[in-house]
Design a protein that fits this description.
The structure is a homodimer. By secondary structure, chain A is α+β, with helices and mostly antiparallel strands. Chain A has one domain: Cytochrome P460 (Chalcone isomerase, 3-Layer(bba) Sandwich). At the A-B interface, helix 1, strand 1, strand 2, strand 3 and strand 4 of A face helix 1, strand 1, strand 2, strand 3 and strand 4 of B.
């Protein structure tokens, strides 16, 4: 191998790496969080590396909540293009308590401690037909703040699905609350 | 130059590039949005590439609002480490109208059309002492939805500062509403 060839191959390698970096947002594969039995690890870095889809503020006399929904990189761009979520997309929904105060803009509410996390992963292929946490095109998981890394749902139909029934036509997701799925 | 040296240098280049990629989140320089007179372009891609710091829901009988605050990549990580914002950090605060409905979780509010954008850039060096949009350690900018790319503030002391006075001790930013500045 002559030196020109080595240099050319090396430059090709650099170019490939740069391309991979540029495409990185499109390549997120949530199944790296899933083991062969269908258990899922909550992504440790979602606040740093995922993008916000939207926030819900639920007004309740017993205590308001703010729900932050994060999506894995590239999820919104794919959705805008294809009108559906990509296989392997991960959604993390933080349920947070709130604080509030009269501030310069009025009666302002903001998120305080996280209470629970719902984590969904899009599964277009029906990978785990015998695992009760998988079904209807998604894997469904629940983590609570007293043990943030311990998955505690046992059956997605009992623990998760009821709240999503009204959104069935939108693949079980309340997409209207997520502006970035519609406009960049 | 022999082929071993060329190969070694090439591998070093790849290694450097990989390091640069890994560090990319720390290298965001908002001043690429600023021209030599101190005008700032609103970042086009903040919904895709910035991270959410937090959402404020302002309850108002005349119409609730949701304020989404985004920060440029690496901002939160730097803040957690240094207890201040890095020079060149960009914050984008979207002021959104809201919709609401009784949903499975209760009286849920979510963000609708964006009304205005406040954009701040951290300037630790007092770069534009004679520009009335710069001062108190930041550049202050305002864009409205009728012309989303047209900056319309004329004097940060009149157009922006009043609402931030209560947060002066925190470098003019309401950091308590931004959990990720405190916990990853």
């Amino acid at each position: 191998m002559n030196r020109t060839l080595i240099l050319a191959l090396s430059l090709t390698a650099i170019g490939t790496l740069q391309w991979a970096v540029a495409q990185d947002r499109h390549l997120y594969d949530g199944f790296k969080l899933v083991d062969k039995t269908g258990s899922l690890r909550k992504p440790a870095d979602y606040r740093e590396t995922y993008q916000i889809l939207g926030t819900w503020t639920v007004l309740d006399p017993k205590g308001n909540q703010m729900h932050y929904t994060y999506a894995s990189p590239g999820a919104a761009e794919y959705f805008r293009r294809n009108k559906k979520f990509a296989d392997g997309t991960v959604l993390v929904k933080e349920i947070n308590a709130t604080d509030h105060a009269t501030m310069t803009t009025g009666n302002a509410n903001w998120s305080a401690a996280t209470q629970v996390w719902f984590v969904l992963i899009k599964d277009s292929k029906g990978r785990f037909p015998n695992n009760p946490l998988w079904g209807n095109g998604w894997g469904w998981f629940l983590f609570k703040s007293d043990a943030p890394d311990k998955q505690v749902a046992t059956d997605f139909k009992k623990d998760c699905l009821q709240c999503h029934v009204p959104a069935q036509a939108d693949d079980w997701i309340y997409v209207k609350g997520y502006p970035v799925l519609h406009t960049k």
